[in-house]
Amino acid sequence: MSISNLRCKECSAEFELDASFYCTSCFGPLEVLYDHSDLKPDEARRRIQAGSRGIWRYSDFLPIDGRAGDPLEPGMTPIIRADRLAERLGTEAEIYIKNDAANPTHSFKDRVVAVAIAKAKELGFETVACASTGNLANAVAAHAAAAGLESYVFVPANLEEQKLLATDIYGTNLVGVNGNYDDVNRLCTQLADQKPWAFVNVNLRPYYAEGSKTLAFETVEQLGWELPDRVVSPIASGSLFTKIARGFEEWLEVGLVGGEFPVFNGAQAEGCSPVAIAFAEGAKVCRPQRPDTIAKSLAIGDPADGPYAVAQAKRTEGGIDAVSDDEIRAGIRLLAETTGIFTETAGGVTVGVLEKLARRGELSAGEKVVVYITGEGLKTLDANRDGFALAEVDPDPASFESKFGQEVAV
Ligand SMILES: Cc1ncc(COP(=O)(O)O)c(C=O)c1O
Ligand SMILES: [Zn+2]
Fold first, then answer.
1. Would you give the end-to-end CA distance of the chain in angstroms?
2. Ligand 1 midpoint to CA 21 (Å)
3. Per-residue DSSP letter, 286
4. Which residues have C-beta within 8 Å of that of residue 260, sequence separation ≥ 6?
5. Which residues, other chains included, contact 92 with Cβ-Cβ below 8 Å and sequence gap of 6+?
6. On the chain, which terminus has fewer CB atoms closer than 10 Å, C or N?
7. Which atom, in ligand 1's list, is nearest to the CA of 238?
8. Distance 375 CA to ligand 2 centre (A)
9. Relative to the alpha carbon of 31, which ligand is closest?
10. The pTM is what?
11. Residue 25: how many CB atoms within 10 A of its CB?
12. Radius of gyration of the chain from Cα atoms?
């Protein structure tokens, strides 16, 4: 770890490394500033390879050394080559699925929360909190329990029941707010001013956001210390999308990897697509939207990092697309049938956009495309309930044969 300051993303003013998140001169967002001038790539690579099995192996590039023996250490989730998916999509690109549902609370949010909670402990906070669309709620409640901290988790009251139950179980103070995520976020920003609490994605946001860089680091390691040609990632606030990019950028800067910067494709649901719309209109800022989609985890109508996500897609000659609820359901099923991976609605959005890219002929033969699957299907089971009917039989072969019309071996 070699962090020096917090820095404003807009005017570059620098600030102390405490729980602050906006610039007091221009109100721009703050980010962590590193000093890697002494970092030797060979030594850094050795430290990484000798490090722990999860995200703390990247401590040189995180704002905290991490908790020794962290029982919920996320990271090093599987990356698999998905040839059957590529075949169904009719593309000759090499498709890789990075399955981040394989984290302790089954989403990529374990990465950002592990970093934020370690930082909260370092700064002396006894209570942590968050504004969540669901997955962050699960992660904050669990990591707070593991760290022995009190927690308050604020969510829209109409969240999927699976996500509510999978948060409450950790003994958190779960608060269902009558409103959408943007209302929840506004409430938490007000409370962050009044309470001595570490809101992981409000006053600790600069540290929290850094956790998503580990998805880029792992991708490079798992591809044999090479960059992919393209990534497809979901966008809600835009933090994940822009920080995956920052991870690749940092490793290029310090010489841990070489080659061309990947093309960035973002994925949103049509029912909440302020970033995709801004991209399509060539606008620099996002017009806030009232979300209405089955992809509740991505339902942020006023995305804090939206403008940076638009710029990121533009800079790499990528894009940001949106898919309908039916395309999301089809994406979930397609991924499950071709890879054995069951993703939540956010993953359906991502696969839906991958399908669009393939259909439009934007994927070239042999290019390495990494698709980030960020959450688990068991948390949004209702999304695929329609049309499901269990085929029941009596416990005898004749009944089975009459229903399924097959020869029964004797
Ligand atoms: C499963 C899943 N994927 C992706 C995201 C997008 O995250 P971000 O807000 O960093 O864009 C979220 C956000 O809650 C999420 O829950
Ligand atoms: Zn500023």
1. 67
2. 19
3. P
4. 227, 229
5. 86, 363, 364, 365, 366
6. C
7. 11
8. 34
9. 2
10. 0.97
11. 11
12. 21
Task: Give nearest CA residue, ligand 1 atom 3.
Answer: 374
Q: What is the pLDDT of residues 343-401, one digit of tens each?
A: 999 999 999 999 999 999 999 999 999 999 999 999 999 999 998 999 999 999 999 99
For the chain, list the domains and their CATH numbers: 3-67+108-208 (3.40.50.1100), 79-106+212-384 (3.40.50.1100)
Q: What is the pLDDT of residue 278?
A: 98
CB atoms near residue 382 (< 10 Å) = 11
- Residue 35 near residue 4, CB atoms below 8 Å: yes
- Length of the chain counted residue by residue: 410
d(CA 336, CA 377): 9
Listed residue (20, 90, 155, 167) closest to 338, CA to CA: 90
Tokens of 163: 């996500």
Contacts of 67 (CB under 8 A, 6+ apart): 56, 118, 121, 147
The CA 365 to ligand 1 mean position distance, Å, reads: 29
- β-strand pairing of 3-8 with 198-199: unpaired
Q: Is the pLDDT of residue 4 over 90?
A: no
